[in-house]
Amino acid sequence: MEKVVTLKRALGLWPIVMLGVGYMTPMVVFDTFGIASQSTNGLVPLAYIIALVAMLFTAFSYGKMVKAFPSAGSAYTYTQKTINPHLGFLVGWSSLLDYLLLPMVNALLAQIYLTAVFPDVPKWIWVVGFVLFVTFLNMWSVISTANFNTILVVYQFLVIAFFIVLAVRELTHGAGYGSVLTTQPFYKQGMHISALVAGATVLCFSFLGFDAVTTYSEETPNPVQTIPKAILLTAFIGGIIFILGSYFTQAVFPDVSAFKNPDATSPEIALYTGGRVFQLFFLAGSLAGVISSGLSSHASVSRLLYVMGRDNVLPKKLFGYVHPRWRTPVFNVILVGFVSLTALLFNLETAASFINFGALIAFTFVNVSVIAHYTVKRKRYKTLKDFLSHVVIPTIGAAFVAVLWYNLEHNSFMLGTGWSIIGFIYLLYLTKMFKMKPIDIHFEEAEESV
């Protein structure tokens, strides 16, 4: 009998957390600062606190579902097992859109950063070079991917730490609010809740990635214990970094009048705070963030494709294959690399508008899955603790996600809807117009445990 090759259980808690934080890209706090400061009237740190609280509810729901089904399939698995296999397929298919396109967006960002430094080099070289590097590292070993990603994340932490030191220097010399400790980034006379919520809604998208750690459930020795902790730590660490970074930025730059380009504040923040040398150090951190996010997002989507292949909803020989030596889903990694090369065809605005739909689909159904599994199926709502965990928290999480849905960019919604329609047509083909029994799903690694 042929031996079944599975993913290698080699990742501990902190490598997984670093993969999640890398996916989120800590340096993004500076890229979005100008837009967020305008929409919140100079209260970006407070908006980040609201966004963090909102995301922690959904993070809690992810943790509950991982304990029940420790599979790399994430929301796809949870929906199939708790609600309906067909609906689970559509959730997985919709999630693929976000997962597949984020590596492409990172390749495009890498090209933009490197072209700015080396304008004479053809742009396509940076895209191809970035994609080849990320693809080969992901093919080789998940441990190598995690270790290199950790180095990149730590570098981003160092850049942010240096920025805070320089910001303190500027504040003590009278810049901005003129004080290191001030309440003005958190409270102002006449502040409007609607503006804060609108700003927090935009900033919630900075947290996309904490959910991606669930795709490593089959590559850690004890997923039931490790993954829920990793999800909450990823969201919390990311939130603290965003709050700290935005607080000191807001204190030094109370409004956006200091910026020539409020929509892309990162280079100017670095220049005005630390000069040209620090600006180069700072922009290298931005590039490190793009590479880190590229590695993590590439790894995550290849795992989701692997589970869908193993479950026979995608061709198993291709998508369900694991390399016997490297213990990675190499065909999926290569496929994602080819998709990433489409960065040669898009500009950043168009590419960025494509993502987020799939993430919101996943967030929605993870919260619903908690209610379906623990409340409806297992009747665990009779104690106060169970009622809060299995009814109140996922309901609040779903409500916050509904706000994100309301504010989703139009192009993202239209593309996501079109992608979902294609998935529905493919589902009709798989099930012969629903005349067959539900898709035969093999959850070797997703046995119910809670």
Write the layout of secondary structure elements.
Layout: H1 13-24, H2 28-31, H3 33-40, H4 44-68, H5 75-82, H6 85-117, H7 123-140, H8 142-172, H9 193-204, H10 223-252, H11 266-310, H12 316-319, H13 330-340, H14 348-354, H15 357-377, H16 384-406, H17 410-430
Helix pairs in contact: 1-8, 1-10, 1-11, 3-9, 4-9, 4-10, 4-15, 4-16, 5-6, 5-15, 6-7, 6-11, 6-13, 6-14, 6-15, 6-17, 7-11, 7-13, 8-10, 8-11, 11-13, 15-16
DSSP summary: helix tally: 17
> How is the CATH topology named?
Amino acid/polyamine transporter I
Helix content: 55-70%
Provide the number of structural domains.
Answer: 1
Please give the largest β-sheet.
none
Per CATH, the superfamily is Amino acid/polyamine transporter I
Going by helix content, strand content and strand pairing, the class is mainly alpha
* Mean pLDDT metric: 88
| Structural Rg | 22 Å
Separation, N- and C-terminal Cα atoms: 32 Å
Q: Can you identify the CATH class?
A: Mainly Alpha
Beta-strand percentage range: under 5%
- Total strands: the figure is 0
3D shape? globular
Compressed to H and E, one letter per element, the order equals HHHHHHHHHHHHHHHHH
Low-pLDDT segments: 440-447
CATH architecture: Up-down Bundle
